[in-house]
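Troubleshooting log. The previous structure file for this entry was overwritten by mistake, so regenerating from the original sequence record. Sequence copied from the archived sheet and checked twice against the printout by T.R.
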Amino acid sequence: MPNQLTIISANPLGVISVIGDDAQSFLQGQSTPDLRRLGVDHCVFGAFCNAQGRVIANGWFQRMEEGFRLVISRDLIALVIKRLKMYALRAKVVINDESDASPLWLIKGNQADLSCAWKIEGPMGLNLVAANSALLPSDAHFLHGEAFQLSLIQAGIPLVSEKTRERFIPHMLSMDVLGGLSFDKGCYTGQEIVTRTQFLGKVKRTLHRLACDDNIHPESGSPVKASSSEEPVGELFSWSLMPGGGGAGLAVIRNEAVEEIPLQIEGYPVEVSSVAGD
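Regenerated output below.
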């Protein structure tokens, strides 16, 4: 069935709610997107950065009637909540962990009859829903395990986790391509570095998609090397095995290295393509 509903467990994700009169102004000063441009239920893929412009966490920012819903890596929920509360001061906001309120799913295919608590239409055609599993259609095609990570890789979405936080500036993760960076919204943490990179700097390392025919499973942070000299030219961001064999991943690599030399991970050759060019 060509348009069969496919439902993929998104258990690696968690949810933070930021509600209150000052929710927009507060988050506006903490994150990379311009939240003033979001209508109710609309979404942008944004980030929180440290003072050096490195991404602490990124994910889906959705406006609600009473504030915002943030969907990020579950293993960063406590860290981000602690950070937000530290900067909230006298802002009229309430920040809560909503990760266990309802299971999260990535949805592909015909969603006309899907019942859910809420839905996010994200970038690159990846839609998320919060729904009790008992309410999901029994005839849908359900996927678990590495299917969620593989879906992110195939879409070119680099979801920062505990293993990759504060390692990359947003441009290295192609977040300018994903639409999660604003360069005219005013000040936010890390804004000076991000804006300078956009207008004055040249990004020497960017996000690329990798593919390998061998069944390897390297860890995030593993070096991507030149096959000829074994010189490290980048590092692996994420990796997943493919159902039919082999693997795929995302990596931050020096741009000139991609153009000139074959690359490898753990001694195995990998094919490389640009995410930004999709």
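The radius of gyration is 19 Å. Archived copy saved in two places this time.
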